[in-house]
Amino acid sequence: MAHKVTLIPGDGIGPEVIEATKTVIDATGVNIKYDVIEAGAGVMEEKGTPLPNEVIESIEKNKVGLKGPITTPVGSGFRSVNVAIRQKLKLFANVRPTKNLPGIGVKDSDIITVRENTEGLYSGVEHYCDEDKTVAESHCIISKKASERIARFAFEYAEKEGRQKVTAVHKANILKTTNGLFLKTAEEVAKEYPNIEFEDRIVDNMAMQLVQKPELYDVIVTTNLFGDILSDLCAGLVGGLGVAPGGNFGHDKAVFEPIHGSAPKYAGQNKVNPTAQILTGTMMLKHLNENEAAEKIYNAVAKAIQEGEKLTYDLGGNAGTQEYAEYVASKI
After folding, report:
1. Which sequence spans correspond to the domains of the chain?
2. Along the chain (332 residues), what's the average pLDDT of each consecutive run of 10 residues?
């Protein structure tokens, strides 16, 4: 059976890490037919927009997208192409797993951050309060509907992944109305999942806890802003953004992308580490129920890093992007 997937190479280092990921996925023998669609800064001149309609139409049709990092052009009308894709496709859950690979990172950590993707301070509802633009105001929008949806997703994802605990992260001690609603809703949803432990943490305390004892945490569910920050902290614990995958989920569609950006200054140098994009590919494979292939790739990445013969510069080696990918593929 062939899976149909929308492939968005992106720009900057995107095409290189996507090509590396395809090399590794192909080595598993999984049959994927890619619908390649361009988006980002590279199509602005031709299309007049960094997000042409055919991008959304293709993902709507295929239900699954694999995406490289994208640069949002200045003055394009989009706050972020990535955010626009999530909003247009109603991808309400951003999932960022961070797990130590052999010899990488400063702490033993295996945490999944589930970030609400549609509201909070990232709603973009902000304005200046005076003509001189000396006072600005931003609205934090939290709804019971979105809070319930993301909390339930976190518990369902925890069950699917065999996880034991969900921790809701908030600032309800100060933001009593907005974050209070988020926390109260998460507590209500938790009662429906008695087999999974539930707790909550205030975000500033959580940041300290993650640095001191990340092994105590399993699945984190939180609001948009806090999820963005804490998932980067978790990535730092396991070796940085170069090894941190990600995925965005809606009710019937999903788009998979690494946490890191497009790093245009490294574009075309065959230099960057594609591990985050490759592990993002494993998330996509699991979503397609190709669990065996996903496991093979993860184990191949772990073995390649452990052996250390052909690693990229940030992992302590001098191999190129594609050379590293072919080395990983040889371990499958």
Report:
1. 1-97+240-332
2. 94 95 97 94 82 94 96 64 88 96 85 95 88 94 97 97 97 97 98 98 98 96 96 94 95 95 91 97 97 97 94 92 97 96
Tokens 């973009």 -> residue: 124
Using alpha carbons, list the distances in angstroms from residue 259 to 4, 15, 94, 129, 255: 23, 16, 10, 34, 12
Instruction: Pick the closest to residue 120 from 83, 70, 75, 74 (CA basis).
Output: 83
Give the integer Cα–Cα distance in Å for 217 and 242.
22
- CA-based max dimension of the chain: 62
Residues recognised as catalytic: 122, 171, 204, 228
> Is residue 140 a contact partner of residue 124, using CB atoms and an 8 Å limit?
no
CB-count burial class (<10 Å; 0-12, 13-18, 19+) for 35: middle
- The predicted model scores a pTM of 0.93
Pair of tokens at residue 120 = 């909070």
Q: Report yes or no: 40 and 71 within 8 Å, Cβ to Cβ.
A: yes
User: Which CATH superfamily groups domain 1-97+240-332?
Assistant: Isopropylmalate Dehydrogenase (3.40.718.10)
Distance of alpha carbon 172 from alpha carbon 166, whole angstroms: 17
Residue partners of 50: CB distance under 8 A and separation at least 6: 39, 40, 41, 43, 44, 70, 72, 73, 76, 78, 81
